[in-house]
Amino acid sequence: MIPRSLQAVLPFKSKPKVREGRKKTGTEERVKAAVVVDGKERQIRSLLTQVQTLKKEKMTKRREKAAEKRVEREKAMAREAARSESRQREERRDYFKQEDISERKRQIAAQGGGKKRARSGREDND
């Protein structure tokens, strides 16, 4: 609660707003009269309730089936992702293996060690 002396000094936007609740009139306080339903209306309401219940059950089954399909699809996607990752890993390994071999060949060639030498010990004497 803010003291009145302080409220008087505050600008309008900062003043606390006190709203009084709307007072209810006598008609709103009264309990609504019960509606008497005859047999025909009771049957109609019963049928509508049954139809709504069937619709809700169908929707529930449909949602459950969709959830099961989603789970299966996620499992299949996970399996496919694992296969793909394995295949990519193999491809990367093969690629880098070939790169390593070609790099070694380049290094040997740069050092001048890749030349073929004449074989000694095999001389043709005719």
Automatic annotation (TrEMBL):
Name the UniProt record assigns to this protein: Uncharacterized protein
Organism: Piptocephalis cylindrospora
Annotated spans, Disordered: 1-29, 55-126
Biased composition (Basic and acidic residues): 17-29, 65-106
Recorded superkingdom: Eukaryota
